[in-house]
Amino acid sequence: MRYGHSIGTDFIYSPFFTVGLLVLAIIAFFIVFMAPTRTKPEHERILDILNVRYAKNEIDDDKYYEVKSILQDEDSDSSAIIVLKERYACGNLSSIEFVKMRDTIKTRKTALA
User: Fold this and answer.
1) According to DSSP H, which parts of the chain are helical?
2) What is the pLDDT of residue 6?
3) What whole-number distance in Å separates Cα of residue 81 and Cα of residue 6?
């Protein structure tokens, strides 16, 4: 104690400490809960595969927009569905096969839950 002041608890009860703590809590809240949804690089990569096929004229306009709309409608983070979407974007599956396999994966997932 020097000149009647202590360093220990005076800092904790000061208004600067309280305001700083509130600012940090608000920033943490916005980072955790209010942050925009993360971009999904695997979904972007799958669309890039489709765009390359379209640029090489492997698929026509109608097929491109059909596959793109189906891929964008499916918003799942399941690794099985991501692999399925990649195979579909590469042209290894038809639309009917993709929908059947996707529905099978989803029903198995809900049955396990």
Assistant:
1) 15-33, 41-55, 61-73, 79-90, 95-112
2) 58
3) 62
HSE (side-chain half, CA atoms, 13 Å) at 79:
0
User: How many residues belong to the chain?
Assistant: 113
Instruction: Give per-residue pLDDT as tens, 29-51.
Output: 877 777 655 556 788 889 999 99
Whether 67 contacts 91, CB under 8 Å: no
Name the nearest CA neighbour of 104 among 83, 81, 71, 82. Answer: 81
Burial class from Cβ neighbours inside 10 Å (0-12, 13-18, 19+) for residue 112 reads exposed
